[in-house]
UniProtKB/TrEMBL annotation:
<dbReference type="InterPro" id="IPR039448">
    <property type="entry name" value="Beta_helix"/>
</dbReference>
<protein>
    <submittedName>
        <fullName>Copper-binding protein (NosD)</fullName>
    </submittedName>
</protein>
<keyword id="KW-0472">Membrane</keyword>
<dbReference type="InterPro" id="IPR011050">
    <property type="entry name" value="Pectin_lyase_fold/virulence"/>
</dbReference>
<keyword id="KW-0812">Transmembrane</keyword>
<feature type="domain" description="Right handed beta helix">
    <location>
        <begin position="228"/>
        <end position="374"/>
    </location>
</feature>
<feature type="transmembrane region" description="Helical">
    <location>
        <begin position="7"/>
        <end position="28"/>
    </location>
</feature>
<dbReference type="InterPro" id="IPR012334">
    <property type="entry name" value="Pectin_lyas_fold"/>
</dbReference>
<keyword id="KW-1133">Transmembrane helix</keyword>
<dbReference type="Pfam" id="PF13229">
    <property type="entry name" value="Beta_helix"/>
</dbReference>
Length: 478
């Protein structure tokens, strides 16, 4: 009997031990593994002082980038080379910091338990401006230099340079007179403390070094706007690798020469760039730029064939990617997506033919090309739409559009003629189908109007003969 009790005791102990072991294993299997965070630390140095305290240092997640921009750059990487969109599209005014701290007297700061990955680090102190750049949690110690801000207003005489290590605060209108120049280094921050502009009667230019920080033209907060860069008839502008935010008009070019490339125009009040009175004696090039988030990306007004718009991206502008009034510009090798209209053409009467060539159009909210007067040549484009392709709607003279060698596909009406149009040459296109009946259904012209309609004979007819059964290889961005 004693032996039996002893055995029962042993079995009970084993049973309790196994139960405890199972409970421990169950707890371990159900408990989430707490991630081991990384530490980001460094030092901020302030100019002309030994007290480096109270500098606000913030960590931001990388900005969310419109997938339509990412997709097009993945498809056409040559459109915007040397540009890190995480840097160019970052805007601290619109993002909440992931983490934030203040430096001590020695300028030391530290963030602990930070998930592994990439972030934007941003340092700011009143009177010293701000700097930011992209970092990785595996990047080691960080050192940031903040220098005294420089207040600018009035006339800038002679040869001047703004350096990349400072913030320049525009406190009033600035003028670069004829015979004077301003050279801005990449990475310079230009902040406008009001609705002021930089008027260029002389020369404004910057470095041509890809891969560096851009020049930032902006304001302190999203409620403020600034007047833009105004280039007059005598002025010369050559700007690359720049970002324009919160301007009334980012760049206004008035009868002058200008070259703008590798830059982003985002969230401006009216236009990203506006040109006016550009004759054949002048030369304008807008290339490898992104226009997004403003009513009109690019405004072309009274501009001749010396205006070239090339290799640029027009995405999600509220009204139009390009708005052309009395213009014969060359619009080539650009990408349009998500704008209300891709291109609006009011007229180019008394100008040469406006050229739309080798562009790609996708998913506009209205028609891609709204043509209201003058002569346009639309050739070798990819026009893909769920709402509408091209509409000829007379308002400023009879629109004449030569539409050849394009790939045009989507829902009707891919080509629509309004009252007051003429015979429209739309031969040698691919319409996304080999069926003549289906092609006919994608077009609106006199054949779709009742003969009893009093305006029946005022509608033009589309000549879509000699259509292709396969896509045009030469069409689209090259």
């Amino acid at each position: 009997m004693g032996r039996h009790n002893k055995l029962n005791g042993i079995f009970l102990l084993h049973y309790l031990y196994l139960g405890l072991l199972l409970q421990t294993l169950l707890f371990l299997s159900c408990s989430p593994t707490k991630p081991i965070g990384k530490t980001i630390s460094g030092k901020v140095i302030l100019e002309n002082t030994s007290d480096f305290s109270n500098v606000k240092v913030s960590l931001f997640n990388l900005p969310q980038i419109d997938t339509s921009i990412l997709n097009v750059l993945s498809k056409y990487p040559s459109l915007l080379p040397g540009v890190d969109l995480n840097i160019y599209l970052f805007d601290q005014r619109k993002q909440k910091p992931f983490a934030q701290t203040l430096t001590d007297k020695e300028g030391i700061f530290s963030f602990s338990n930070i998930p592994d990955g990439e972030y934007i680090i941003f340092a700011q102190k009143e009177g010293y401006g701000w700097r930011y750049f992209k970092i990785s949690t595996s990047g080691g110690e960080i050192q940031i230099q903040l220098n005294k801000e420089v207040n600018i207003s009035g006339i800038i005489q002679g040869q001047n340079k703004w350096t990349r290590d400072r913030n320049y605060i525009i406190e009033g209108d600035v003028e670069i007179p004829n015979g004077s120049s301003l050279y801005i280094e990449n990475g310079c921050v230009v902040r406008f403390n009001g609705n002021f502009k930089i008027r260029v009667n002389g020369r404004l230019e910057n470095e041509d070094i890809p891969g560096q920080m851009p020049i930032i033209f902006t304001t302190d907060d999203t409620t403020k706007t600034w007047g833009g860069i105004y280039v007059s008839e005598q002025g010369q502008l050559d700007l690359k690798y720049s970002v324009f935010r919160s301007a009334s008009v980012g760049i206004f070019i008035d009868a002058s020469n200008a070259n703008v490339s590798n830059s982003i125009f985002i969230d401006n009040k009216n236009y990203g760039v506006s040109t006016v009175q550009i004759s054949n004696a002048k030369n304008i090039k807008i290339e490898k730029c992104i226009f997004t988030g403003q009513p009109i990306g690019l405004n072309l007004e009274f501009t001749d064939t010396t205006v070239y718009v090339k290799n640029s991206i027009f995405v999600s502008n509220y009204e139009s990617g390009i708005y052309a009034t009395t213009s014969s510009a060359r619009i080539e090798n650009n990408y349009f997506s998500g704008n209300r209209y891709s291109i609006q053409i009011l007229s180019n009467i008394n100008r040469d033919t406006l050229l739309i060539k080798n562009n790609e159009f996708r998913s506009s909210k209205g028609y891609h090309i709204v043509h209201k007067g003058g002569i346009v040549k639309t050739i070798y484009n990819e026009i893909l739409s769920s709402n509408g392709g091209i509409v000829l709607s007379p308002a400023y003279g009879t629109p004449i559009n030569i539409i050849n060698f394009n790939n045009i596909a989507g829902k009707k009406f891919l080509l629509a003629l309004g009252s007051g149009t003429k015979l429209t040459d739309a031969k040698f296109n691919y319409w996304g189908t080999e069926s003549e009946a289906e092609i006919r259904n994608l077009i609106f012209d006199r054949n779709d109007v009742s003969p009893s309609d009093q305006y029946y004979y005022s509608y033009g007819i589309v000549d879509y003969s000699n259509y292709f059964s396969v896509p045009v290889k030469e069409a689209g961005v090259k």
